[in-house]
Amino acid sequence: MNSNGVEVPTAHKLRLRNLKLSDYQDIKEIMDAVYSNLGGSWTKKEFSAQLKRFPDGQICIEDNGKVAAAALSVIVDYSKFGDKHTYEEITGKGLLTTHDPEGDTLYGVDLFVHPDYQDMRLGRRLYDARKELCVNLNLEAIIVGGRLPGYKNYANTMKPSEYVEKVKNREIYDPVLTFQLSNEFNPRKIARNYMPADKDSRGFAVLLEWFNLQYEEEEEKLIGNKKTTARVGVVQWQMRPVANLDDLMRQVEYFVDTVGGYNADFVVFPEFFNAPLMALFDAASASEAVRILADYTEEIRERMVQLALAYNVNIISGSMPQYIDQKLHNVSYLCRRDGTHEMQYKLHITPDELGSWGLRGGEKLHVFETDVCKIGVLICYDVEFPELARILADQDMEILFVPYWTDTKNAYLRVRRCAQARAIENECYVVITGSIGNLPNVENMDIQYSQSAVFTPSDLAFPHDAIIAEATPNTEMVLFADLDLTLLKELSSTGSVRNRLDRRLDLYSVSWKKPAIVK
């Protein structure tokens, strides 16, 4: 027996389950104790109505068969209520007459824990169960009205908004709001007259929101749904002499065929993978040779589009030179397996590329829609500029492909280290690949160094070293990796750190100056 005459088992046996009508006496006992200054428990009529209208939303934790904590909820079409609702309005005076199975929001009606169990973090378990319910029902968000019981001590010295800000900053402890904030809920609006009987809160409450990042707006289809796992094939390409363009394309088709045979969604080639063709030219200089090489780009792209169709795989074409209107650019093509294609220019040009070839940087940055997810492409040097990947991530990019060409290990390590940083800070996957071997008679591209790899964010759900796969250095090979896209969504809301969410946008921002070029 405890001091209140309640028998508490010496050995706990906790179980999460849905509430049932026979639990009413346990519920009444807890609510009468917790809400003694707010009228106590629901009536049995109200409790019965809650179970009848939305049984899946009423959950509890029992200990040896006795309810120790409970959470009640309702599904609503939140647009019908907006942020100016009262507690009685949105709960149908406790009868949940507002329940709408076709609604978009899980609304938290109540959550309470028996005083004898309030040091066991049962409230956190119930919040986690609510989040799981929200995800499984494919609802957009959870919204709760957070009481401010501690406000009674500060009502004469500060406004509710000031109080909430101080609680957020951990300068003041509030037994309700502090708990909700620690469970990843974000303040949405301060509600007046939310619960007039709540004298401690002076009738105020904070509407808090938890977004379901796994929410899918479209209805599930039997075929053609977006995938939750993306399989990538990464070609670490051997530079070798070729007799002509057909000879080069036979090598390309070999790898596309191989990767397609493993039902991959993407195959990626290195930057300037077609450089072996330059050995065939009787060019006076490296700048002349790369401009002749550009003459092949359109045909290679068209052949890659046909290979993407034939082998049912999206191809990231590495990169190739483009020479139009006496301007030389470096461009990567996304050749989709539906027959369409788009391109991404290299934006930053190295001093050597400028001095030897006269390359120019492009002016557009794209996020590409694919049948799997949104992707981005940054060519080699571009990945060393973190602003680009951040802009792509803000457009919901999930996989960043980085085709590169590096001649020495220190050059390679610049690309690798920066690519790993981009994966962590933008909570995305990053796939890098380059070429190996030697190219006699090709000025400025005669030696190569590469170790292709697939990087992840660094958190518990991912490999301990944040590397899914990596190639043997300087060996021609293909890497395969399955990228779980759902892990990225979970990381955004439940990660040990949340780099994108926790940015101080009140202090700084990253923006694209030229209009209408990011899509």
Automatic annotation (TrEMBL):
Domain of life: Bacteria
Database matches in SUPFAM superfamilies: Acyl-CoA N-acyltransferases (Nat) (SSF55729), Carbon-nitrogen hydrolase (SSF56317)
Positions of the N-acetyltransferase domain: 14-171
InterPro entries associated with the record: Acyl_CoA_acyltransferase, C-N_Hydrolase, C-N_Hydrolase_sf, GNAT_dom, UPF0012_CS
Matches recorded under Gene3D superfamilies: 3.40.630.30, Carbon-nitrogen hydrolase (3.60.110.10)
Keywords, comma-separated and alphabetical: Hydrolase
GO function terms (MF aspect): acyltransferase activity, transferring groups other than amino-acyl groups; hydrolase activity
Domain CN hydrolase: 230-485
Similarity remark: Belongs to the carbon-nitrogen hydrolase superfamily. NIT1/NIT2 family.
Name the record gives this protein: Predicted amidohydrolase
Organism: Catalinimonas alkaloidigena
Lineage: Bacteria, Pseudomonadati, Bacteroidota, Cytophagia, Cytophagales
